[in-house]
Amino acid sequence: xxxxxxxxxxxxxxxxxxxxxxxxxxxxxxxxxxxxxxxxxxxxxxxxxxxxxxxxxxxxxxxxxxxxxxxxxxxxxxxxxxxxxxxxxxxxxxxxxxxxxxxxxxxxxxxxxxxxxxxxxxxxxxxxxxxxxxxxxxxxxxxxxxxxxxxxxxxxxxxxxxxxxxxxxxxxxxxxxxxxxxxxxxxxxxxxxxxxxxxxxxxxxxxxxxxxxxxxxxxxxxxxxxxxxxxxxxxxxxxxxxxxxxxxxxxxxxxxxxxxxxxxxxxxxxxxxxxxxxxxxxxxxxxxxxxxxxxxxxxxxxxxxxxxxxxxxxxxxxxxxxxxxxxxxxxxxxxxxxxxxxxxxxxxxxxxxxxxxxxxxxxxxxxxxxxxxxxxxxxxxxxxxxxxxxxxxxxxxxxxxxxxxxxxxxxxxxxxxxxxxxxxxxxxxxxxxxxxxxxxxxxxxxxxxxxxxxxxxxxxxxxxx
Length: 465
What we know:
By secondary structure, this protein is mainly beta. 3% of the residues lie in helices and 42% in strands. The protein is built from one helix and 35 strands. This is Carboxypeptidase regulatory-like domain-containing protein.
C-alpha cells in the first residue's frame, strides 16, 4: 500500500506541471511550467524535476524588549556559508513573513532534503540582526512539516526574530532605497549587498537586494554617502547620495564594465589538526574590537557550501573593487588566527582591489583554539541563570589567561587575568536578562606573549529572565 501511495504522489505532482507533463517536464527556472501555487524542483534520484508545494520559512519579527510586532521589516535567508537563498521578504502589519527556500526533494512526497539556513532582518529604528556578536541561529529545512495549505513549512524558534531598539538619538533617521542593475547572465538580484559609506567615515549601513534588484538601507544619519553594490563576479558604478531627514528614493546602481579580481594566498597551520576557511569582510564594516564584520556573499575559500578544507594555498575568484579585511579561521573549525604579534603572518590582513587587481597576496598562520567548556561553547546562545562562571580546557604551554566580556555593541565590560581554567564574573556592570553577551579568552605563554584564543563565533550567552 505504501508503494502505491508513493507512486500516486509522484503522478499527482507531475500531472500538476501541465497538460503535457510526461513529455515536457517542468523547468526549475521557469515557474510558468507548474500550476499556480506549485514550484518546479529537482528530486533525488530522478532525471527530471517535478512540481511541488513550496518549502517556506514562516516567522515573525518583534521588538526584543516589548515583543510587539514590527511591520515593514526586511528579512532574507542565507545558507550556512553566507550565500543568500530565496528572496527578501517584508513583514506585514502583524510582523509576519514567509520566505520560499528553493530545495531538492527527497522523493515524490515532496519532503525537502535538509539545508541549514540562517536569517537576517532589518527595520527602521532597530539594530539590524545579526550584528555585533548577536549570531543567527540555524534552521534545518529537514524539519519542515506540511501545513494546512500543503506547503512544507519551518516555523518557530529562530524564525521568530527579535530586533533591539536603537538608542533614542538614532530613532527617526532616513532610509536610502533604489535598484541595482541585474547581471548580463540573467541571474536575479538576490546575492547582492548594498552599502552606504559616509564620506567623512564612521558610518556604514548595509542591506540586501531582492530578486527584482530593489534595496532599502534603514537608519541612515544625515551626511554625504557613497552607495555601492557588491556581488561576486560583478562590479557596479557607485552613486553619491546626500541624506538629510527625509528618505532618499530612486538611487540607481548600474553594472560597470570593469572586470573582477582573483585573490591568491596561503594558510599555514602551525599547531593543531584539521582544515580551515578564508572569508572576505568589507573593511568599512569591520570592528577591530570584535574582529568581525559583514561578509561579502560568495567571497570565501573553499567555495560557499563546502566544509572548511584549506590547509595551504587558497584562491577566491570574482572579487569586485573595494577595500576588504581577509579573515582566516573565522568559522568554527577548532582553529584560530595565531595571536602572537611578534610572528609574521599573524596580523589581520587588509587589501585593496582596484581595476581587477589585488594589492597583496595574504599569508596566514593559524593555530589550535582554546576549547571552551561554557557558557556558549556550542553554536547556540546559551541561557545562564545568575552570574556566569566562564570555564575552558587547559591549553598546552599556557601560563596565564585573560578573560574578557563584551556587550553586543562591542564594548568591553570586564577583563580578568587568571592562572586557573575558570573565572567567575565579578564586574561592576549588571548583566541584563534577555540580551546577548560574549566572553573571549586569550592564552599567554612563558614569555608573556599570546599563544592562542577561543574561537570568534563561540562564547555567546544571555542571562535567563
